[in-house]
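[Q] Does anyone have a clean structure-token version of this?
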Amino acid sequence: MLVRSQNRENLWNLENLSGITYNESCLTRYGKEKNEHQISVDFGGLLECCGVYATKERAIEVLDMIENYYQYAQEWTVTGTGKKQPGFVFQMPEK
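[A] Here you go.
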């Protein structure tokens, strides 16, 4: 299964990743602090951001969406009819 970044500039194959993770960072802009809630792909300890969300809850919800989509893709692979299986691409939501 493939995951496409929020900005649509990157595409990752889940089979080549160590995982997908939530992380939070605190940014300071113009003297104001702002928490950024990111979902990142993990290449054996090297993280690359694939989406940024307004709240931790929304980021976790998107992780749940990826999990559900991955499970669906796996079930299709196991129970497929022998026909050419479709490629599964999860597009990271904008918000």
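[Q] Thanks! Anything notable?
[A] Residues 56-79 form the longest helix (24 residues).
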